[in-house]
Amino acid sequence: MKNLVILGGGYGGMRILHRLLPNQLPADVNITLVDKNPYHCLKTEYYALAAGTISDHHIRVTFPEHPNLHYKYGEVTSVDLDNKQILFQDGEPLLYDELVIGLGCEDKYHNVPGAEEHSCSIQTIDQSRKASQLLNNLPAGATVGIVGAGLSGVELASELRESRTDLKVKLFDRGSIILSAFPERLSRYVQSWFEENGVDIINGANVTKVEENTIYNHDEPVHCDAIVWTAGIQPSRIVRELPVEKDVQGRVVLSLHHHLPQDENVFVVGDCASLPHAPSAQLAEAQAEQIVQVLTARWKNEPLPESFPPFKLKGILGSLGKKHGFGLVGERALTGRVARLLKSGILWMYKYHNG
């Protein structure tokens, strides 16, 4: 029996499972999914969990079941490429014949002193739970500082503003206008929403240091009763430590067929892979579809695809609380209730089709 090991039950890992099961998996191949949690987590909704507007079970999806699918739950410490094994904090190593690494990302602190020690994160479900406890236990009138005004920071700030109107929310943004990578119409819409709803946007921010309850912006102290870091991501530590070629963001450089150039049995999917788009759930799923094509062709002793079509991403959607949103669908900019309803509908469809 061959053993396909999938490290990480995120969006890429789940898409591979759902495409292989129940009918695409040969009888002589076992799959072992390795994850810290016994369920798939909807990472795109961690901001709402942290803000206290949804409960834990709303962002958990049950893993699929199959006679040839097995699970191992634990903390991975490293991947031994030479000996084809996964090492764990506790327990015996796990051997693989083929491996898909989909371990996701971690916060990137940009060497800002104290940032990791004195801020909380929403990168994992455990971290989001801790952030929720901290934020929702704050007294009335407390100040929350959110460092980083990308999609996660914007959604967290808006959701927190609606769930805790008694709090003061400060959003630190490096740009001259929020979400500067988006079309100007969307940026101005989001900036106006925050201004109308009493969120303090600090544009042109440069966080130089973080201490307990204090953010230093251009070396000037700003008191915050709680600090959340959403200012960038990097591949997981395990991937950063792999002795393989990486791009300038630290993501693994891959072959046409999404495996290591020097090892055709090791694939990398999602946030850890060097791809021509910014990391996203959509991108991980699109890449997973192509990895499945490669695996099934190999198992059938068929020629591998000579090329793949470019990834077709449908767009990006963000929420501003429960009633408003923004996004790009194709080339079309959407704002207001339509964008928010569309995002809610996509989330419902994902949960429906995945368990």
From TrEMBL:
InterPro entries: FAD/NAD-bd_sf, FAD/NAD-binding_dom, NADH-Q_oxidoreductase. Keywords: FAD, Flavoprotein, Oxidoreductase. This is NAD(P)/FAD-dependent oxidoreductase. Belongs to the NADH dehydrogenase family. GO terms for molecular function: NAD(P)H dehydrogenase (quinone) activity. Pfam families: Pyr_redox_2 (PF07992). One of its GO terms (biological process) is aerobic electron transport chain. Signal peptide: none annotated. Residues 3-283 form the FAD/NAD(P)-binding domain. Its cofactor is FAD.
